[in-house]
Each structure stands twice: as C-alpha cells, then as structure tokens.
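Record type: monomer structure entry
Structure origin: computed from sequence
Chain ID: A
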Amino acid sequence: MNGFTLKARLSIASIVLLLLALSTTARAEKPVVVTTIAQIADVVSHITGDKMEVSSLMGEGVDPHTYRMNRKDIAALTRADIILYNGLYLEAQMEDALERMALNKPVVPLAEAIDQTLLLSSQSYENKHDPHVWMDVQKWMAVTRKALEVIIAFDPDNQTFYTENATSYLEQLERLNGYVSRVLASVPENERVVISAHDAFNYFGQAYDFEVIGIQGLSTASEAGLKKIEELVALIVERKIKAVFVESSVADRNVRALIEGAAARGHTVQIGGTLFSDAMGPFGSYEGTYIGMLDHNATVISRALGGDATTSGMQQLLTLSQNTPN
C-alpha cells in the first residue's frame, strides 16, 4: 500500500496527460459517468436512469485498496464526462491520476462530503479516515445526495428527473436501513460480534451495535501476524463465539486459521457465510446491487449468530444466502 514507484507514477502521469491532450475519441451521445467502485455506479444509475452512460472500473471480488489502473481504465476515465470515486484513501493507488484528471473535468470523491465528525479514524493510516462508509446505510444516503448534486450541476436541464429518481432511491435506502436494523437487533446481545478478514465493518458495527474485529488492518495489503491470530483464537474460545465470516474480495486463509486454532483448543467455530465488504456480488444479480449487498450481509450475519432472518432476505430476492447455516 505504499503506492507506485516513481517510475510507475511518471508513466501513468504521462499516459494521462497524453490522452487528455490528444484523445480523438468520438463523444458518446449521452454523457459518460465512470466510477471507481460498483457501489457508486449503482447509486448513479438509479439517479440518472437512461440519460447517462454509467460504468465502474472495479467489479466483483476486486479489492480497491490495492487496485491499480491499467491502460483500459485510463482510456475510460479520459473519455468520461464525470468521474466519481469514494475517496478517503480507498483508491490509494489511483489518487495521483484522479487528481490530474480533475484539472479537466468533474472528478469528485463522494464520501468526503460526509461530515468529518461522523467519520471513523483509520487504524492503518495516520490522519486518514476509514473509507468503508457504505456499510452504514445512512452514511451511504449522504453519498447518494452528493452524487445527485454533482449530476445536477453537470446537467441542470434535467434536475427534476434526477431529483425524483434520487428521492425514490433514498426511500428504498430508508427501507433497507429499517430491515438491517431489525434483523440485526434480533441477534442476542452476547452474540453480536463480527469477526472477518479485514476491518471493513467498523461503520456497520457503529451503526447497528455490533462489536467488529478484523484480522487484518483497514488495508488488505498488510498481513495478519501470528500473534494476532493467537489472540483472536483465545478470544473466540473464551467467549464461545460460534461463527466467523469470510469476505468475497479478501483471501480466507486467516479466517480458516482461526477455525483451526479454535478446534485445536476444543472449540468448534464455523464459517457463518461470505460477506461483501469492498465489492458487491456478481454483476446482474440482486447481490450485485448496493441494496442486495447490504440485505445479504445483514441476513447472513443475523442467521449465523442466532438472529431472526429468512434466507431470502428483505425482498425475498437473495440467492447466495441460501447456502449459509440456519
């Protein structure tokens, strides 16, 4: 997570400047919005409907902390009329290029619009904030409002259309937040512990009253040490925690080390399911939407820890949670 080498940075910078200066790509009929993560693309698609072309650079199973742009990404960003990214150092390897792009077009870190007093501190980077704000639905509603603001500023002629779409989507997020709060509140208080691969769930824990423990730090580029594993095994055994969770975008080897360590001490702990942390589910699936992602996570966690949630989730649309324990 130390970023590019100087040579790589200069190479990327040269490509960006060259494409900005010399690109002869024909403009699309519709304005083009490119986002870094798919969560943002999902929000923007709800707001813009068929009036803009929306795509994201990162898809299923991609870790944005370590993601590095390729030439195809740079071409897509160069072609874009608007670039929207999370910010808060989530896209750490891309920040230099995004800042250069901002000299020529709207390039907006949406999560940085959230009141800083509401942000959690990074456990890995000094003077940085935890970037995983989508884990708290209410904070993601603030991101949605910021996206609406940027889109209206670019295309004020369609303000009413965008505002109506955003209002409808925000109502859906309100319902989502109610469901997530309800099924997680049904988990017995002494069971409200989420142990997963890395610290992506701190906003989740704050919003829904769960203790959250990540094996790695906020950056998935750091490796969990043997001492950390041993400490967590001792905690699992002492508190008789019955489930831990893997993540779709992070290797599960450290989580499985916890299971093996607990078993060696006579305590059985199972994998409660796979959670979506830095990336959503498969493209085209319900879990491949922001609402489906959070519905899935809340449902899986609730069911694994003794709460009251059906396998099909809030809208009876979940499919991946069918394979989680009862």
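Annotation 1: Residues 177 and 315 are 13 Å apart (CA to CA).
Annotation 2: The chain has a mean pLDDT of 89.
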